[in-house]
């Protein structure tokens, strides 16, 4: 079986992602303190949402498109800073620990469910094609397009349902 991306390339992408987040973190944190968490998170969500589009473009002949997704995912730093800030802002004084624990447990469980659900959908529909706006898409391309749409809509949810804490 031919591998389009080597393990060393994937490890380099992970290191670049972490380094990018590490370098961006202090500036993003200061900006979140000045402008609020929601604008930082909204910008991060819109950048993160572009990642699946790069995966949709990647092929075994052109695997370098994957690097674009990982570059977009550096923007997770905005959510990694903003979400805990919102949780702490919403928790009553002296109740930070249970709020953080529930947040971490809930997000971990949702990640688990989405991974299992996505794997079962891939098993079921992996060989099918879909027509979208006149274009024929394979399952993975259609899934990446769906994820892009849903992640982009996350900005609406952020501004309609999430409010900054009172602290």
Main attributes of the structure:
two-stranded antiparallel ribbon; mainly alpha; 2 strands; 167 residues; globular; 7 helices
The biggest sheet amounts to: 2 strands, antiparallel
What is the string of helix and strand elements? HHHHHHEEH
Report strand order across the widest sheet. Answer: 1-2
**Average pLDDT:** 87
Number of helices: 7
- Tell me what portion of residues adopts beta-strand conformation: under 5%
Q: How many separate domains make up the residues?
A: 1
- Kindly provide the radius of gyration, computed on alpha-carbon positions and rounded to a whole number of angstroms: 18 Å
Tell me the total number of β-strands. 2
Class inferred from helices and paired strands: mainly alpha
Terminal CA distance reads 55 Å
Helix content: over 70%
Morphology call: globular
Model regions low in confidence, pLDDT < 50 over at least 5 residues: none
Explain what this protein looks like in three dimensions.
- The protein has 167 residues and is mainly alpha-helical.
- It contains 7 helices and 2 strands, in the order H-H-H-H-H-H-E-E-H.
- The longest helix has 30 residues, at 96-125.
- It is globular.
In short:
The protein contains seven helices and two strands; from the N terminus they run ααααααββα. The chain is mainly alpha-helical and 167 residues long.
């Amino acid at each position: 079986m031919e591998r389009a991306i080597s393990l060393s390339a994937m490890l380099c992408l992970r290191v670049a992602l972490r380094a990018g987040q590490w370098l961006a973190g202090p500036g993003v944190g200061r900006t979140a303190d000045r402008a609020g968490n929601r604008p930082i998170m909204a910008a991060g969500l819109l950048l993160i949402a572009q990642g699946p589009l790069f995966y949709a473009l990647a092929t075994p002949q052109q695997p370098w498109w994957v690097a674009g997704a990982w570059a977009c995912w550096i923007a997770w730093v905005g959510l990694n800073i903003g979400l805990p800030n919102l949780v702490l802002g919403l928790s009553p004084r002296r109740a930070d620990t249970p709020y953080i624990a529930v947040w971490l447990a809930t997000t971990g469980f949702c990640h688990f469910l989405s991974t299992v659900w996505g794997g079962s959908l891939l098993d079921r529909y992996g060989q099918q094609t879909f027509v979208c706006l006149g274009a024929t898409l394979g399952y993975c391309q259609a899934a990446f397009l769906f994820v892009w749409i849903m992640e982009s809509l996350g900005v609406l949810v952020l501004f309609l349902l999430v409010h900054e804490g009172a602290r």
